[in-house]
Design brief:
Shape of chain A: extended
Distance between the termini of chain A: 97 Å
Helix content of chain B: over 70%
CATH superfamily of chain B: LemA-like domain
CATH architecture of chain B: Up-down Bundle
Organism (chain B): candidate division WOR-3 bacterium
Family (chain B): Belongs to the LemA family.
Radius of gyration of chain A: 30 Å
Helix content of chain A: 25-40%
CATH class of chain B: Mainly Alpha
Structural class of chain A: alpha+beta
Transmembrane segments (chain B): 6-28
Strand content of chain A: 15-25%
Keywords (chain B): Membrane, Transmembrane, Transmembrane helix
Shape of chain B: rod-shaped
CATH topology of chain B: de novo design (two linked rop proteins)
Number of helices of chain A: 14
Number of strands of chain A: 22
Number of domains of chain B: 1
Membrane topology (chain B): Single-pass membrane protein
Largest interface: A-B, 25 and 26 residues
Oligomer: heterodimer
Chain lengths: 570, 173
């Protein structure tokens, strides 16, 4: 029987622990850990060590080394053998105890796991309430079993949308489709009350469990028992392709549902004053009137103000006018007949590189949310304060028009979306477990299948780069590489690699030759043209906005100028 | 002093407008050139495929000498230096001749079954479609430029810098 040890980091600041923790772990266990930054680093698990029963000593040593790194270990057994699951959250030492492993807990609640079970070690979690929540969040976000035991050893599990059996749900609820999931959850909430009660009165009730997680787990449990939920976690979690040899201590995560690592977070940004903010605009004429009334004292000040406003709005008037004329001058091109250089194209967003927004659940190639929290500023006064900005921008996405597809590379792009929506709850419950009255999210989203127009430079794709990534992918494809392992020693030596490489190059050329002319092009930002404008509005709507702005800034500019002149003559 | 100050602001504003309108016209003018050279690229590509097509057709349709000679003759008349009207005329005549050649396939089943011929037919048809799209794009650029040149205040700048109208790329029947 083999045992596996998994490690995990939880961090909100990607890059900090990610880069160093796994190197440290690698050192501690004296093994190479294979990982790729995009998939593994961040919030996730990785199999770091596998061992046979007789190798337990070395495993213990490795665990002790991990302890020295102050990576507190949390041990979770993979099957339902634990009677006291709540005690698993802090275990320091592992001992062999008859036919079981004994995990000595600092609280004195030892945990026993049968040797026949696999062991999962999650590192990087300590026992403060908040991080215990993080663990739960993480387990939910990674679609991993969360072991919370209710009465009669009932296991409450996380809800995995992929495993939801909609036809069964339909029998229990009048709603059945994904878009009605919130309604389904509301319906199921009622039906799962019994489970919540069971849970609250069970001996293993964990006090720090958050209410939303409780509901979530209860729903999941209800669904599980009623066949609405098909649990296949055990097979899914251990990816058999990667357990073949000890060298492959790598777990390929299934990020089909949600990839939190790809959302870049900016917390508490500096609030910039925007003179065009709707709240400020009405103040401008009021300020004028006030200053005009008190002109004897504020004559010079008023004059300066007038000319400053004139300069400011004059500048923006010309800037937008220039942009408007530019937009009007760029001809529209069909994707299939696009040529190198500046182009305006339109099309429907395809779902490649799209992920569901955690806020609205809409599958999108771009979303940006602002998280506001209600905070007390004075007694009886609360204010919404911006606490976080999250954004998902893939390096590229694709659009389709008349059967032709085109890649849009998003570097330096300016994405202009016509509207934003406010939410008090998030589609993925684990994303926000705070009180919905105290939290709001304002989200802008560019969903799959939306019509967009793009102005940017069409550039030929870099053949060498594409070739490099093609080779890399082929190299990682074990099935393909095994064909070239002529001496069957499971190692691709230089001669074998030469053959493999020439085969890869032939395949790449074939693939490239099959491409049509426009498929070699992608729209991107270039320094020469200095623009990559993406919008889900029509060009007409964008131009209308420009016109409004031009008129508005022109009027304000002229009024400021006239007032300034009047003041000078007086 | 005040008059000087007001005058300075006035000149700055006028200069701002001039700068933007002049640059817009130059941008549009260059777009016209670019759109035309985009058509040239495709005309050249189509031109390069014609000898291959003639060679294959010659093999199967020996009695169509006149038609093939005609295509070759028209093809040799192409030059990068042709003006827009010349290119439009050239493009239409080549298109018409090519249509006649493709029609031969109905008369000669062996030709219709030739893989090389089919590949060339597909390639040339695709080029023809792209030429049509780019012609549309060119005409859009020209119309945009010509309209601007006649609009106020662009008309003043166009007049000052002798910016003339460009002809459209029209299919000659």
């Amino acid at each position: 029987m083999r045992y596996y040890i998994y490690a995990n980091t939880i961090t909100d600041s990607l890059g900090k622990s990610n880069k160093s923790v796994f190197k440290d772990i690698s050192k501690a266990i004296d093994k190479d850990i294979l990982y790729s930054q995009q998939r593994f680093i961040g919030k996730g698990f990785a199999k770091i060590l596998s061992f046979e029963e007789q190798e337990l000593d070395s495993a213990k040593k490795a665990l002790n080394n991990l302890e020295n790194l102050k990576i507190k270990s949390v041990l979770i057994d993979k099957f339902e053998t634990s009677k006291r699951a709540e005690s698993i959250f802090k275990t320091a030492v592992i001992e062999e105890y008859e036919d079981r492993f004994r995990f000595i807990n600092v609280r004195g609640n030892d945990l026993y796991i049968d040797k026949v079970n696999e062991i999962l070690v999650i590192g990087g979690i300590d026992m403060t309430n908040s991080t215990a929540d993080s663990l739960k969040k993480l387990c939910l976000s990674q679609n991993f079993d969360i072991y919370i035991y209710a009465g009669k050893e009932k296991r409450l599990i996380a809800l995995d949308l992929r495993a939801v059996n909609y036809s069964k749900i339909k029998e229990a609820s009048k709603y059945s489709k994904m878009e009605n999931l919130n309604k389904v959850i509301a319906e199921l909430k009622k039906k799962s009350m019994k489970y919540q009660e069971d849970f609250l009165y069970s001996a293993s009730f964990t006090p720090d469990i958050s209410p939303s997680l409780l509901i979530y787990s209860s729903i999941a449990s209800f669904m599980f028992e009623n066949g609405m939920y098909e649990s296949k976690y055990a097979e899914e979690f251990l990816n058999p392709d990667f357990i073949e040899s000890e060298k492959n201590l790598y777990y390929d995560f299934k990020y089909d549902i949600y990839r939190p690592g790809e959302i870049s977070l900016k917390t508490k940004p500096v609030k910039k004053m925007n003179l065009f903010n709707t709240a400020v605009i009405p103040l401008i004429p009021a300020l004028f009137v006030a200053l005009f009334v008190f002109r004897t004292q504020a004559n010079v000040l008023l004059m300066i103000l007038c000319f400053s406003l004139f300069a400011y709005y004059g500048f923006h008037f010309f800037r937008i006018l220039k942009m408007k004329l530019f937009f009007e001058s760029v001809p529209f091109s069909k994707i299939k007949s696009m040529s190198v250089g500046l182009n305006e194209v339109s099309g429907t967003v395809l779902d490649k590189n799209a992920i569901p927004s955690p806020i609205s659940g809409i599958k999108a190639v771009y979303f940006k949310y602002q998280k506001f929290r209600k905070e007390k500023v004075k007694e009886n006064t609360e204010e919404w304060k911006l606490v976080e900005i999250g954004e998902y921008v893939p390096s590229s996405f694709f659009i389709e028009s008349e059967g032709d597809t085109l890649e849009i590379k998003t570097d330096n792009s300016s994405i202009n979306l016509h509207s934003s929506t406010t939410y008090h709850t998030t589609y993925y419950t684990f994303f926000c477990m705070e009180d919905s009255d105290k939290i709001k999210y304002v989200e802008e989203v560019l969903p799959v299948s939306s019509e967009i127009f793009v102005i940017g430079s069409a550039v030929y794709s870099d053949r060498n780069k594409e070739m490099e990534s093609f080779i890399k992918n082929k190299k990682a494809n074990r099935e393909f590489m095994n064909k070239f392992d002529e001496d069957k020693n499971k190692v691709i030596d230089a001669d074998e690699w030469d053959k493999a490489k020439s085969q890869i190059e032939i395949e790449f050329d074939e693939k490239e030759n099959k491409k049509r002319d426009h498929e070699h092009l992608s729209i991107q930002y270039t320094k020469d043209d200095n623009i990559l404008f993406i919008s889900d509005m029509s060009e007409m709507s964008v131009l209308k906005r420009f016109n409004l702005f031009i008129i508005f800034s022109g009027i304000i500019g002229i009024i400021s100028f006239i007032f300034g002149i009047i003041l000078i003559w007086r | 002093m005040i008059v000087f100050f007001i005058g300075l602001i006035f000149i700055t504003v006028i200069f701002g407008f001039f700068f933007i309108f002049y640059n817009t016209l130059i941008f549009l003018k260059n777009r016209v050139f670019q759109a035309l050279s985009n058509i040239n690229v495709l005309l050249k590509q189509r031109n390069d495929e014609i000898p291959n097509l003639v060679e294959i057709v010659k093999h199967y349709a020996k009695f169509e000498k006149e038609l093939l000679e005609n295509v070759t003759k028209i093809r040799s008349g192409y030059s990068e230096n042709l003006d827009v009207e010349g290119k439009a005329t050239y493009s239409s005549s080549v298109s018409n001749q090519l249509k006649s050649i493709f029609a031969l396939a109905e008369k000669y089943p062996d030709l219709k079954a030739d893989k090389q011929f089919l590949r060339l037919q597909e390639r040339i048809t695709s080029l023809e479609n792209q030429i049509a799209d780019r012609r549309e794009s060119y005409n859009w650029c020209v119309t945009n430029f010509n309209t601007r040149c006649e609009q106020f205040p662009f008309v003043i700048i166009a007049g000052m810098f002798n910016m003339n109208r460009y002809p459209l790329f029209q299919n000659k029947k």
